[in-house]
Specification:
Length: about 350
């Protein structure tokens, strides 16, 4: 592609894309003549722009207006015309401070998504690592009001989860303490999937023996562990920032994009494609695999713990985003998140 675009056309395309990213408006030939620094007439520039439009790099929104880049034009710009900036020291310092190795994996992932959004002013997204064969270490039950019980689950070595469940009857503090002792005695150290299966089997046996207390205890454990199966597939920060650069015509497209965020499956499929990528990947428009991304770009990079890839982080924003700033931020954040996870013990330390 690069060999078939003359230098003059490449220069004009570069200036046009940069101006459109900055202003968000169609760019005319007179503006390009002033900014490109080429010793050519406005008529010559118009001819070059017409050729670029015919080849699919530019588009004229209205017959009397200037031109804007197409997804193909942005692709050429990103691949061969873009000059990536160095990440400024303040941004690097902020990333380093927030991605502290002492944080849990969950906190690190959340911090990374928030950092990406705050620094780039776009939506930041980070997939959550999947845990390997999580094991039940300990459970505690504490009584609350209105037949509610606070469940404290310790998974693997350091992951602590708190949740509230509603029970069919009121439990005393002593009953809950004894229930926790019974559950820990029977199931501590076993894989959660195994524990869930055994609890269901024993619930059936307890009911057949009409052992009310054992049945109630197992029901408590079943509720607590059933909720553990949930969890987020990814963390998204700054989704509303996409409204900042949206025009009235973009609102319907944004609704569809937010629907993609809500459904998760389609976006996860895109992100999972990037897990084993070598560095930053950029999807412009429908390269992401869905028409709803037509006016948006997705910039991703994988992260890991030094032993294997664990997930993907990235930025979602309009195609007219500041690629020269966003690309290095995504790259630096992925490296620093990987470094923080490498200093810990991987995804099971949350």
């Amino acid at each position: 592609m690069q060999e078939t675009i003359p230098d003059r056309a490449r220069t004009l395309l570069k200036v046009l894309v940069e101006r459109h990213i900055r202003d968000g408006q169609p760019v005319g030939s007179r503006t390009l003549q002033e900014e490109a620094g080429l010793a050519v007439s406005a008529a010559t520039i118009r001819n070059v722009l017409s050729d670029l439009e015919e080849r699919g790099f530019l588009h004229s929104p209205h017959t009397s207006s200037g031109r804007i880049p197409t997804a193909l034009g942005y692709r050429l710009f990103v691949d061969s015309l873009l000059q990536v900036q160095e990440v400024d020291e303040a941004a690097v310092a902020a990333v380093r401070q927030e991605l502290n190795p002492d944080k849990t994996t969950t906190d690190l992932v959340q911090s990374a998504s928030q950092l990406l959004s705050a620094i780039t002013h776009q939506a930041g997204i980070v997939t959550v690592p999947r845990q390997d064969a999580p094991q039940l270490r300990q459970v505690e039950f504490l009584p609350l009001s209105d037949n509610r019980v606070l469940v404290i689950l310790v998974i693997n070595q350091r992951e602590v989860q708190n949740r509230i469940i509603h029970t069919k009857r009121t439990f005393t503090e002593e009953e809950l303490r004894e229930a926790a002792r019974l559950v820990n005695q029977r199931y501590a150290g076993q894989a959660l999937d195994t524990v869930k299966s055994r609890i269901l089997d024993e619930m059936r046996e307890a009911r057949s023996r009409i052992d009310d207390y054992l049945s109630a205890t197992l029901d408590l454990a079943s509720q607590a562990l059933h909720q553990e199966e949930g969890g987020d597939d990814y963390m998204l920060a700054g989704g509303l920032r996409l409204l900042d650069s949206a025009t009235a015509e973009d609102v319907d497209k944004l609704r569809e994009l937010f629907d993609i965020f809500e459904r998760k499956k389609d976006l996860l499929h895109l992100l999972e494609r990037c897990t084993r990528a070598d560095g930053v990947r950029i999807f412009i428009g429908d390269e992401a695999g869905h028409d709803v991304f037509g006016d948006f770009s997705v910039i991703t990079a994988p992260y890991g713990d030094g032993r294997r890839p664990l997930g993907v982080l990235g930025v979602i924003g309009p195609t007219r985003m500041a690629y020269e700033r966003v690309i290095p931020i995504v790259d630096v954040t992925s490296r620093m998140l990987s470094s923080a996870l490498s200093a810990g013990s991987g995804p099971n330390r949350t």
